[in-house]
Structure formats: C-alpha cells, structure tokens
Design goal:
Distance between the termini: 12 Å
Number of domains: 2
CATH class of the largest domain: Alpha Beta
Structural class: alpha/beta
Bound molecules: S-adenosylmethionine
Length: about 375
C-alpha cells in the first residue's frame, strides 16, 4: 500500500530549506515549553512526515511530545503514550490550544484565591524558594492537580518549565534559587551548594514569570489537530484502547540501561503531586534489569503497536546505546523486532547530516567512540 514510504532520502533532501526556514518560526516555541531529557530533534519526525500522505501518527514512547508536535505542524492527527507523568504533562501541552490571556488569567485566579494547601517544610524548601514564592507554587500545585481545561494543561507545563533554573541578573526567569533547569539537584547537595556560597532565595513573582513565559511561548501557536497524550505503559496497549488506526509510528524507546528520569526531575515530579523528596523506588520504565527482559519488553510494544496500525504502516525508530551499557543497538533493536509483523526496510546512522545532537550526549557522559545512534525504518506487513 505505501511501498515507497520507507525510502525517504529524496523527501528528506527536499525538506532542508523548509526546516531552515522554520528554525526561527515563533510557532516552534511551544515545543520548548519545558525541558525533559532525551528529546530527539524536531527535524527527525518532521522529515518523516512532511510531504507524506495524511494519517494518524503514534509515538508509544512520546517523552515531551516532539513527534506529536511535528504531527501538529504538518496538520496530522496524533497520539502520544508515555509512562512518565512529567513527560505526559509536557506532551499534553504540545497539543493544546489556548491564549496568553487565558493562561495568565487562570494563573492569576489561582495565586489570588486558592489557599496554599500543603506547603512542604524543611531546610531544602527554605533554601530553594522564598516562602511567598513557595506558597504560590503550592497554590498552583494544588489547583492543577486535576487539570480540566486546555488553559490548565498549558499553565501546568509552563510552571514545570520555570520551576527551577539559573538566577539571572535582570528579571527572574525561574522560580527557584540557583539550580540547573534541565534537572533538579538532589536536596542535600543543593543545600550544601547554597549554604557554602551564601546564595539565599529571593522573592520571585510567580504571575510575572508565568506572564513573560506565556507571552514568549504562546505568541504563535500552530493550528490544533485531533489527538491526545495518555499516561500508560506501552507494553499493555490494547487494540480497543484506540478508535483510530495509525499510519505512522515515530519513536525512540529508552536505551538499554537508562534509568527513569523521575529522580532527576524530582522537583517537577513533586509539582505534579509526587512526594517532597527524591523517590528512588519508583522506576517503572522499560530499561532494566536484564538485556533479554528489555528486548522482550520492546518486542511486546512493537507487537501491540502493530495491532493498532493500518496495513502498510511505517515504523521509524531512533535507537542507540549509553556509554555505561555498551551493547550493539542494532542487534538489540533487530532482536526486539524479530517475531513481530514489522519488516525492516532501511537502517541509517542518526548522527549524520543535520539531525542535531545525539540523545545519548544529553546524559552528560563523555560519549565513547563506540556509541552509535541509528534510525531504523520498518513497514507493517500486509496481513
Ligand atoms: C528516549 S525518551 C523519548 C523522548 C522523546 N522522543 C522526546 O522527544 O521527548 C523514552 C521515553 O520512553 C518512556 N518510557 C519508558 N518505558 C516506557 C513504557 N513501558 N511505556 C511507555 N513509555 C515508556 C520514558 O518515560 C521516556 O519518556
């Protein structure tokens, strides 16, 4: 049915000027609403989708929703699934439609009217936020614990994006004391750092930070497309879960050995209702403990995904290895696809051309020479 769809070299080279023109496009700002580890570059799913026949797009490991946002940019309906609540909260915002005014008005309503609820106490919290800022953060945490509207979805992702980060000289961009924006420092190390340098938290006006961020991110939002993002384990997807059938699956599973991002994102996890400490116990994601179990888990996902796809559907997987677990990613990926209805069509090095930084690089390890990232294209055999 879609015999040539796996061979996209020509389409990819035609895409280059289009992608360059889009780099400065304010419509892309929504894609950067909040950091999350290991996103792949937007250009990767866009290359697959731009110019392709319209159809439903699925990402069963959607992370912060880059595939879903690419689908939105080209006007395709899309669904994302992820097991991590932080990823889901961010990805849901990628499909939402709202206005700066709507989000700011909702934020104002919350900080002015809600009781602060459960305000955590202890050395970390006293050093991390000014007390008044922390109370506003807690008001938002409480009010957004059950999001009902698109304003709520976008406001929640905006707050996740500004919750912690570096302190600037001018107007503050983040709500916390000095901290990286990509991950949250563990409490003891953070307190040691602030105390030894005598960096005390200053009052940050939450509404003002949210307003400035909303004006930047939401000034030009792409047209809405049908779709949703769901919190689920993709190893348990069932055909009845979806009314639609997918034509494209564009995804990047965790690489073997990766641990859950929840502990590195523990402050964002707390904002979403998690505990006020690093929860090392919770690691439900596919990634460990043994290689055979990992391959089996991936195979389960590819099989279940095939059951919600239309015949001839295209699967594109970006996959690699992390330096601390040196396995051959091609062997692992091929082993996971064997015995499934997906037939490999093409394999290429993902690090070449203008694909951007490798995901493995984002783990702050020095990349070993043997680390490889590949893109594998497969199609769903006609029954
Ligand atoms: C490499 S990241 C994907 C990043 C994504 N491409 C992006 O641009 O943000 C892998 C994702 O798979 C998710 N994941 C791991 N195990 C999963 C499972 N069993 N079901 C669904 N998602 C899972 C992780 O939470 C993580 O967000």
């Amino acid at each position: 049915m879609h015999a040539n769809r796996t061979d996209r070299d020509v389409a990819a080279s035609n895409m280059e000027p289009w992608l360059k023109r889009r780099c400065s496009d304010p419509q892309l700002r929504l894609n950067a609403i909040s950091p999350y580890y290991t996103m792949f570059p937007l250009a990767f799913p866009l290359r697959v989708l731009a110019g392709a026949e319209r159809g439903w797009v699925l990402d069963p490991f959607c992370g912060r929703g880059t595939t879903n946002f690419a689908a939105r940019l080209v006007g395709f309906p899309t669904v994302g699934v992820d097991i991590n609540p932080i990823a889901v909260a961010i990805a849901q915002a990628k499909l939402a439609s709202t206005t700066v005014h709507g989000v700011v008005a909702r934020c104002q309503q919350i900080v002015e009217s809600e009781a602060p609820g459960d305000v955590p106490d202890g050395e970390f919290w006293r050093w991390c936020f000014h007390q008044k800022t922390l109370e506003d953060v807690c008001r938002l945490r409480q009010a957004l614990s059950d999001v009902q509207t698109e304003e709520d979805i976008v406001l929640r992702a905006l707050v996740l994006g500004v919750l912690h980060g570096p302190r600037n000289k001018g107007l503050p961009s983040y709500l916390s004391n000095q901290m990286p924006r990509t991950y949250a420092t563990k409490p003891d190390a953070a307190v040691r750092y602030w105390k030894s340098r005598e960096i005390h938290p200053v009052y940050v006006d939450v509404l003002d930070v949210v307003r400035r961020r909303a004006e930047h991110v939401l000034s030009h939002v792409p047209d809405k497309v049908p779709g949703f993002v769901r919190l689920a384990d993709s190893r348990t997807l069932a055909p009845d879960d979806f009314a639609m059938r997918f034509r494209y699956v564009i995804t990047s599973p965790p690489y073997f050995g990766m641990k859950t991002y929840v502990s590195d994102h523990w402050l964002r996890h707390w904002f979403l209702g998690g505990p006020p400490y690093v929860d090392y116990a919770s690691d439900p994601q596919l990634g460990r403990p043994s290689l055979p179990a990992f391959i089996e888990g991936l195979r389960e996902v590819w099989t279940r995904v095939s059951q919600v796809c239309e015949p001839g559907a295209l699967l594109v997987v970006r996959f690699g290895a992390i330096p601390s677990y040196e396995v051959d990613p091609v062997e692992v990926l091929r082993a996971s696809l064997s015995g499934t209805p997906w037939k490999e069509r093409r394999l290429c090095d993902a690090g070449s051309a203008s694909n951007g930084r490798r995901q493995a690089d984002q783990f702050q390890f020095v990349r070993s020479r043997s680390t490889l990232e590949v893109d594998l294209y497969a199609s769903l055999e006609e029954a």
